[in-house]
């Protein structure tokens, strides 16, 4: 998993509430177990017209937001089914941070396991970030995970809270397997002790 330390990039605004995982990555893209290639299906029902052409009104199709790394979204983002393909699609598209007032629990945890920083802010702070993000190409946010800050294009700074364990995992690029491997010496010592007692 890639480390998340700092991130600077254009933030795209999506003033939509209750965006479920089927809207993030529709079911027809779930046939793969690969984490790559899913970016093309991200928000496909909103990004593309019925004939396959791009919907020019959708935010990620606008020139200023085509290379966005940050999403500012409405309440309850990632609700619905527990598909891990949702954070896979976001990552494959290039998005490393999603900011909202609330996330569905499973989606929130899946983000952390896949190197995406999901930040919860107050409704008042979210409105400020929407206003920043709606500036188009000038909608650059700077996120510092160690300092737990979001800096806007005018230099204003917001602070956010995050669980200490989640923060450590993201800063060090460690998923659950990586966290377990950090304890490999202790695990090996325990296994050796059992073997010496004849339990191997």
- Choose one word for the global shape: globular
Any idea what the CATH superfamily is called? Answer: Aconitase, domain 4
The assigned structural class equals alpha/beta
Distance between the termini: 33 Å
Computed CA radius of gyration, to the nearest angstrom: 19 Å
- Architecture per CATH nomenclature, i.e. the level-2 architecture: Alpha-Beta Barrel
Unreliable sequence segments: none
How confident is the prediction overall: mean pLDDT? Answer: 92
Using brief descriptors, characterize the structure shown.
alpha/beta; Aconitase, domain 4; 7-stranded mixed β-sheet; 200 residues; 33% helix
Describe, in plain words, how this protein is organized in 3D:
The structure is a single chain. Helices cover 33% and strands 16% of the residues. It is α/β, with parallel strands linked by helices and 200 residues long. The protein has one domain (6-173): Aconitase, domain 4. The longest helix is centred in the C-terminal third of the chain and has 13 residues, at 184-196. 30% of the residues are buried. The mean pLDDT is 92.
Sum this structure up briefly.
33% of the residues lie in helices and 16% in strands. It is of the alpha/beta class and 200 residues long.
Draw up the topology in text.
Layout: E1 6-14, H1 21-24, H2 44-47, E2 70-73, H3 85-93, E3 97-100, H4 105-113, E4 117-120, H5 123-133, E5 140-144, E6 149-151, E7 157-159, H6 164-172, H7 176-182, H8 184-196
Parallel strand pairs: 1-2, 2-3, 3-4
Antiparallel strand pairs: 1-5, 5-6, 6-7
């Amino acid at each position: 998993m890639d480390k998340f330390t700092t991130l600077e990039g254009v933030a795209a605004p999506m003033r939509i509430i209750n965006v479920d995982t089927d809207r993030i990555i529709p079911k027809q893209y779930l046939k793969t177990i690969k984490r790559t290639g899913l970016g093309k299906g991200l928000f496909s029902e909103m990004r593309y017209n019925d004939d396959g052409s791009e919907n020019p009104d959708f935010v990620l199709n606008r020139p200023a937001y085509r290379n966005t790394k940050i999403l500012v979204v409405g309440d309850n983002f990632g609700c619905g089914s527990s598909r891990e393909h949702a954070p896979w699609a976001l990552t494959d598209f290039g998005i490393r941070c999603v900011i909202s007032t609330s996330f569905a629990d499973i989606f929130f945890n899946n983000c952390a396991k896949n190197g995406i920083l999901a930040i919860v802010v107050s409704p008042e702070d979210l409105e400020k970030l929407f206003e920043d993000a709606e500036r188009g190409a000038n909608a650059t946010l700077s996120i510092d995970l160690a300092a737990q800050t979001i800096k806007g294009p005018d230099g204003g700074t917001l602070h956010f809270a995050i669980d200490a364990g989640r923060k450590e995992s993201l800063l060090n690029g460690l998923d659950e397997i990586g966290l377990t491997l950090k304890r490999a010496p202790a695990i090996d010592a325990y296994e050796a002790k059992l073997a010496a007692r004849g339990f191997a």
